[in-house]
Amino acid sequence: MKHTVSVLVENKPGALARVSTMFARRGFNIESLSVGPTERNDVSRITLRVDCERHSIEQIEKQMHKLVNVLRVSELEPGEAIERELALIKVHAPADKRHELVALGEVFHARVADLGADAMIFEVVGSPEELDSFEELVRPYGVKEMARTGRIGLGRTSATAPTPRKHHV
Amino acid sequence: MSGSKKMVGADAVLRSLEAEGVETVFGIPGGAILPIYDAMARGTTVRHVLARHEQGGGHMAQGFARASGKVGVAFATSGPGATNLVTPIADAWMDSTPLVCITGQVRSNLIGTDAFQECDITGVTMPIVKHSWLVQDVEELPSIMKAAFHVASTGRCGPVLVDIPRDIQEAALDFKYPDSVDLPGWKPPTKGHPRQIKEAATRIAAAEKVVLYVGGGTLNGDAVKEIKELAELWRIPVVTTLMGKGAFPETHELFMGWPGMHGPKWSNYAVNKSELLVAVGARFDDRVTGKLSAFAPGADIIHLDIDSAEISKLRHADVPVVGPLKQILHDITGELRKLQSAGATSRTEPWLRQIREWRDEFPLRYTKASGGDFMKPQTVLEALQAQTADRDDVIFTTGVGQHQMWAMQYLLCNQPRSFITSGGLGTMGFGIPSAVGAKAARPDATVVCVDGDGCFQMTCQELATASLEKLPIVVVLVNNGYLGMVHQWQNLFFEERRSQVHLTHQVPDYQMLAEAYGAAGFTVTNEDELEAALSEALTCGRTAVVDCRVDPAEGVYPMIPAGAAAIDMLEYQDPQGAMA
Questions:
Q1: Mean pLDDT of B252-258
Q2: Torsion of CA B13, B14, B20, B23, to 10 degrees
Q3: For B308-324, what is each residue's pLDDT tens digit?
Q4: What does the alpha-carbon distance between residue A122 and residue A111 come to, in Å, rounded to a whole number?
Q5: Domain B194-361 is classified in which CATH homologous superfamily?
Q6: Cβ separation of B185 and A10 shorter than 8 Å?
Q7: Which CATH number goes with the domain that contains A139?
Q8: Residue of A13, A25, A55 with shortest CB distance to B127
Q9: Residues B99-158: pLDDT tens digits?
Q10: Which helix H or strand E contains B213, and what residues bound it?
Q11: Alpha helix (H) ranges present in A28-168?
């Protein structure tokens, strides 16, 4: 099963390396990882997507808690979090296909970020699943290159804020 | 800044060590750490023990830490000096030894340029340290030193590394050692949860077939008194892991040996037939459990540990309690006293009787030598045990392999911190340097390194350190001329095809080698000479090496083959005729 884990770390050299090294060392695979600033300039947020069993995700969280630079670890439960991702997709777009592609993009609120003689770059933001769908739809036209940011997420304001899992109170 | 003093970074390192109460450090100087060694020459209360190899220095710091309960400190220069520390760091990581490693680094402006003796040691060691710091601003040095000692010694103990570029060592700062640490992400548990403690006590009170499975965390957690109180109050049999050896007196009537690959049959039976297994600072290591699914299959698990990540890592814990073991055990005993006042009584007597019957039925055994060229290795350990049995001031260290397992089986340790060995990493060569470190920590103790000939040759250069630094140790060399454990596995699992394991009894001459290092050397080939040689070595007051020539065909038994169920043990196999 796939899990999204949100990790707040001190904005210090090596913090990201320590987190990713721990995953590699313990044999956990990272499907996507994004890191960026938060509302505090001394704190960064790492959002990780991992595919593993419930037992493993608990191990991952506990191992991460032991890292000195890690301030908080919480799992973003589906339905209780907003998750978004940005993709840039360079699609083969000869003149006769452009209209079709633009129309397709509109369904996904994808913006044409760049247009060349035989290709265009879509910029699309959405849930990672929406991005998967869009990618599937444009693939038959020929995807020349693609870059995705990896998902980021926050707990919903309506739900209770995501709290760190209690470990063996 | 009030109370601050102008100095350079190198001085700040030493003033920090002094402020932490560090008495002894171990290391070797080199280019990138020259300013720190110069500051040492200008004056400090810290004693520096000059090792002959950085690995030796690191293991000495480990031995110091394990014998004293304090943080061990090792120094090394950049590049190869630092990489030579990697093995002790990995060892300290696996065995939860508090260790602060201080390495010199090339100047800040050279970092990343592949400069002479440059190595990204914080990168290399990242998976095997609790935390590490590359100091980038000299003003941060005092707070980093404070944090390093704090992180190494709180929560689950372990190694940390502080890498200091040479220009930082030379840069001036206003030094003031901080009173507290600022580590918002480091919050080790401070107290076990009362409800879980109550639940643990209730289950222990009701159990008939219960075993305390005591690991090295009990020593790190300073919970030796508490484990004894708990065991004695409720009459609970105790087994200890290799790392926990000495945490419970081994001549105590409730002591039931050591479970695992080379533990006696009765100890493994006790664990495997138990209905309630109380793990105390132990981590269900594969060398203890064998095949995990067949380990104590009928037991509920109570797991007490400072590290929440150990809970249910390998074996599901029915009652986990996370926190300092000293407090948790104290409180469990307190709850049991309350239950006792309310009429509950221990129900373990039939179970204790059963384990004792197993002990009588399946004792450790071997066939004594009848003449021939060699002594039996077990006989050497029995003789050492006989000569040290009534003393509470003896510390044993070991290397890794057959001799280590015989040491576990035949040396009975009644004192905490009296058996220092490399458990998790299994580092050959750990014995001699860790003995030197233990001697530095406990100068009044007699420190005996039980070593194998393979291990000896990995770190014997530290005999020079022992001689010159006036840190005399006694090395009892269980010399079978082989990489004995590998030899044993080749015999058992590779159809006796011996591949690259024969070290021979020809070279080196250990007695001469000992003498070359300024130590007393003894060669013992006959059991009749054994007692006298050991006695002289133990009392001569110098570093001594007793080369005991033992039967290469002898194996360590019983044995649970790797991955097998603990209950499927190989019994003692008399080598006579089979392998000799």
A1: 98
A2: 140
A3: 999 999 999 999 999 99
A4: 6
A5: TPP-binding domain (3.40.50.1220)
A6: yes
A7: 3.30.70.1150
A8: A25
A9: 999 999 999 999 999 999 999 999 999 999 999 999 999 999 999 999 999 999 999 999
A10: strand B210-214
A11: 54-65, 98-107, 128-138
